[in-house]
Amino acid sequence: LKMAWFWFYLPLHLLTVSCLCHAIKAPTTSSQQSFKTDLFNFYHSLLLADGKETTVHLLKDIPKRYYFVLEEGRALAPFTITVTPCDVPIEWSILVHKASASFLGKAAQGDEDTQDVSKSQKAPSMMSTIFNFKGNSVETYMGVSPHSALYILEFLSTERDTHITVYLTTDTTSGHLFPELPSDPRIDVIGIGHTTVTLTWKHSPSVLQHKENIQYCLLVNEKHNYKSLCAAETAIRSSGMKLPPTLALSLSPYLLEPQQVMILSNSELSIISKASSGEVRQICMGTKNTYTVSNLSPSTQYYFDVFLVNLLTNASAAYTGTFARTLEEPEPKVMELKDGKVIQVVLDGKKQKFYSLQYQARHKKIQFTFQLCRGQVQVHITKNGKTVASENIPGLKYFSLKGKFLDTYLVQLRSTEESNSSVKIQVSSPSQKPSFPLLPDSLKIKSFSKLRTCNSVTIAWLGTQEESKYCVYKKRIEEDQVWTELRSADRCSGPESRYKSEKVLCKYFYDMNLQRAVTTETIKGLDSGTLYLFDVYLFGPSGIPVRYHSKVVKTRKKC
């Protein structure tokens, strides 16, 4: 097709050059330089295809020219030129050769007639500018040529290298390459929530006429609006992301970048991309003209652009973009803590948000107790708005605080890792019997390598000065289960979650001398060369268990 256009226009190109050359055989002195300039511009121009979108690459401060010719016999022929900047503002002009009609019609009559024409034109400017524009918006020029004429389009970028698209058509009867926008191309925001924005826009006449070939695509970003699909794609690529050839996506398979996620649901195709400038979403929703964008961040300004895309040609038209700010996130509900009551809280690691609890003191001296069940948790305590404690919970942690009657304490908890964490909390007064047991200095279980045999293992753990109940459990595991078992262990769960067959024994002990508050136990009847997971549970006065850190030991393979 490109070669056909080339061979079609080549004779006309050569004829036009020839006519121009004949016309300047005997120019007047004052018009000679004008002719030379016009001829230079023509020689350094490229043929602009009719009825096809052309991509033009521009180098900074270097003009680029294209030409087209409206042939004889098409009096009052209409033509349309649409220029779409894909990045920075550009300057572009349309020039027409004033004498092109006379020269194309009279050059063949001979030198004498040509000289008469030159003499009768007293140094005219042979090229006349009929349109110029500067900016980065899509601009369309509609004109009518009263006779055969040579037109030159000149493009210039003064900011940086860029590219544009140019569409010329002289056939205004067979429809448009670009989808048609409605008379009011604005996007209306009809609903704003904490994480959602609902948009609507008027239907395009193209959608009503060619529903199967047209669809709407929405672009959501946190930077600014874009005046064309070409400009949007260029900006997103420059931020480090790679996009499909068009937001229309045509639903054909392609490879996504690692930072991109594609979601296809309910006939909607969404692509979520991560960039330094924030998240960018592309959503193609068919011919629906109302859409709710969800999963947005609270209190964040977003920019919304709707593009009307022709699936057959990939040509597009842009609605007038809009923006909206999501509502601020509501204050989280605060749970009331009650004296002596133990509650367990599960914290979402992905959201990394604080979970709040409030307590109004009934005593001057109070004690907060935190037992870490799973994950990693940070606690922050304020009294009447002032911070009194802030640290990570290692296992079981007590905070003894002094204040006044009816002081207000706010406890805030959050997971410090991406996985969910959980913790038990209790607030009590010194007069209340503690629910949690008195803990030793360490909750580690020790094993003795020299005492290991093929069918037995000896373990030891620390006790306290308070007589308490200790229960030992064992579980046979495989090598590839070790990390999972240790990682997923819930240190707040008691033996009720274990199989009865895993129970080894329960015993009571204490020693007033903490240096001697150590107990050992030899577990027999084990299989040789086998991994075992050992757990010790300590029970307090109220029956709340505390689980020691699990210990993995392997029996000897040969004895």
TrEMBL record:
Superkingdom per UniProt: Eukaryota
Keyword set includes Protein biosynthesis: no
Keyword Iron listed: no
A Pfam family reported for this protein in Swiss-Prot or TrEMBL: NDNF
Predominant place of localization: secreted
SMART domains for this protein: FN3 (SM00060)
A GO MF term: heparin binding
UniProt keyword terms in alphabetical order: Glycoprotein, Neurogenesis, Repeat, Secreted, Signal
A GO term from the CC aspect: extracellular region
A GO BP annotation: nervous system development
Subcellular location: Secreted
Function in brief: Secretory protein that plays a role in various cellular processes. Acts as a chemorepellent acting on gonadotropin-releasing hormone (GnRH) expressing neurons regulating their migration to the hypothalamus. Also promotes neuron migration, growth and survival as well as neurite outgrowth and is involved in the development of the olfactory system. May also act through the regulation of growth factors activity and downstream signaling. Also regulates extracellular matrix assembly and cell adhesiveness.
Domain Fibronectin type-III, first and last residues per copy: 179-316, 437-545
Protein name, UniProt field: Protein NDNF
Transmembrane annotation, as ranges: none
Residues spanning the signal sequence: 1-23
